Amino acid sequence: MEKKSGRISKGVSSSKRKDQIGTSRNQFFEEMTNRLLTRDVLHGEEIIEILEKVAAVFMNQPMLVEVDPPIIICGDIHGQFKDLIRLFNHGGDYVDRGAQSIETACLMFLLKIRFSKDFFLLRGNHESSAINRVYGFMEECCRCYDISLWERFQCVFDRMPVSALVAGKILCMHGGLSQELESFDQIRQIPRPVDIPQCGILCDLLWADPDPQAIGNCFLHFNFKAICRND
């Protein structure tokens, strides 16, 4: 017996769905976007198609994304789908806590696929299997789908960029700066796919806070200009 919920059902592949996927990728992704925006449900093969495509898009872009203004930066969506549709550029923590993490992530991934040079997504500390298995995302995937969907999402999260540099002056990340960071090349050279480690530059970029009790590095004063000179 297939699992179902009011939002997403596992579903069975139909010939119509296969025809739609096989015709035009662009039309398919546009259709999926419109369906999410109108609160329609997505079937399993549709979500898998989205995840496979966006993983490739992320891998074709650097770990440190360099962008020029004007740009709007937002973050910590945490599965709040209604808030998401009002925002169009984010800075990590897309899943967990809210009731619609699957729809939230899928909509952002679709926008990334369709507008890859203008829409940027950075990884947050909840885009990690160790965290989102605890804070609700795994439970949502299993309730609405099955564990394999959650595992596929982790494969995408492990390929996401972690930082953005705006106009060569503003460094964006979900967490904070690392004492080990001396050059932007250290971010660019972080290999992917990669899970979030418990220490080091990648951990600090996603976890560091100006707080001695933070999981990552505690940063209060940091010479950002020195990093720029070393780049």
From TrEMBL:
Quote any Pfam family the record assigns. Metallophos
Which is a Gene Ontology cellular component entry for this protein? cytoplasm
- Catalytic activity annotation: O-phospho-L-threonyl-[protein] + H2O = L-threonyl-[protein] + phosphate; O-phospho-L-seryl-[protein] + H2O = L-seryl-[protein] + phosphate
User: Which cofactors are named for this entry?
Assistant: Mn(2+)
Residue ranges of the Serine/threonine specific protein phosphatases domain? 122-127
Q: What class of enzyme is it?
A: hydrolase
State one molecular function term (GO): metal ion binding
Q: What is its EC number?
A: 3.1.3.16
State the PROSITE patterns in the record. SER_THR_PHOSPHATASE
Domain of life here? Eukaryota
Keyword vocabulary terms for this entry: Hydrolase, Manganese, Metal-binding, Protein phosphatase
Reply yes or no: does the keyword Hydrolase apply. yes
Q: Where is this region: Disordered?
A: 1-24
InterPro entries (UniProt xref)? Calcineurin-like_PHP, Metallo-depent_PP-like, PP1_catalytic_subunit, Ser/Thr-sp_prot-phosphatase
Q: Does the keyword Kinase apply?
A: no
- Family assignment? Belongs to the PPP phosphatase family.
Name of the protein in question: Serine/threonine-protein phosphatase
Q: Which organism is it from?
A: Trichuris trichiura (Whipworm)
